[in-house]
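Section handout, structural biology tutorial.
Before the tutorial, make sure you can parse a SMILES string by hand: atoms, branches in parentheses, ring closures as digits. In the record below the ligand is pyridoxal-5'-phosphate, and the chain has 331 residues. In the tutorial you will relate the predicted structure tokens back to the input. Do not try to memorize them.
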Amino acid sequence: MHLARHPRVRLAHLPTPFEELPRLAARAGGPRLFVKRDDCTGLASGGNKTRKLEFLLGEAMERGADTVITVGAIQSNHVRQTAAAAARLGLRAELILERRVPERGERYESTGNVLLDELVGARLHFRPGGLDLSAEAGALAVELEREGRKPYVVPGGGSNPVGALGYVLAARELLAQADEMGIVLDAIVHATGSTGTQAGLLVGIEAQNARIPVHGISVRHERERQRQAVHALAVTTARKLGVPAPGFESVIVHDEYVGPGYGLPTPEMVAAVRAAAELEGLLFDPVYSGKGLAGLLDLIERGVFTEGQNVLFVHTGGSAALFAYEEELRA
Ligand SMILES: *Cc1c(COP(=O)(O)O)cnc(C)c1O
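Predicted structure of the complex:
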């Protein structure tokens, strides 16, 4: 494996910090807790998609694209980071936003990430929920090509074997930090959605033979579906790099923290977001990292992670969406 063989543009502030969370750990009453600050990747309020976009937009630039198309839910952090990356590279951004989350107020479509999408100069295309978003992106690409533009389509969440390279690299980065600090990691935990983060981490950890379990806290799909999807992407990513693919049994997913559905708040998410903010001054988000942290805290309570262990939570970002959930977070 030699990542420099793959086209890349530099967008992220790397390495992101690796920090201890002593006050949150004391409250949780179990293992030592650490956080990998991928909320601090730097691009228009940061997040995990920036690592993937370094490789995806590396490919786009190599192909001579002048426009980036991507898709996501209304409050998508991925879409916002893609739009900001496009601005930085002088590309136009066309964003397809799906009304995936039912019964949110009017401001849901103008505040938080949507405001940032507009600020960085992207064009927004709103769509009803439940459509095939990659087909929508394909249709828009054809339309733009007819106008003489050269679009590059970034898949939802930036999750394909190119985007996942960003998290293969992240696995190497975080292991180097743990080694430097002399911390033996017993587990890595993070929120999983479009699968690129977990797939990339699994491939990177397997390639280094580090034997650290990676727990994905699902924010959308049920466990077996998510495991299949993560594994499928891990296999194609490993093949791209010529390294051994992680086995299916190494894909760990917890689906008990989704609540009523994607983007819909749970009381445990609100409690986790508040605890991280009050105890550590850290901002987690309502859709992803807050549910991920709620999962971690519950797994500690259930004795899955215990005293004497070291657990790393990958903070994947998302705080820009907090403002779209003001009511629930205040209540
Ligand atoms: C997209 C996202 C995730 C999930 O990462 P995937 O690679 O899509 O599984 C987690 N947290 C935040 C804040 C995100 O925006």
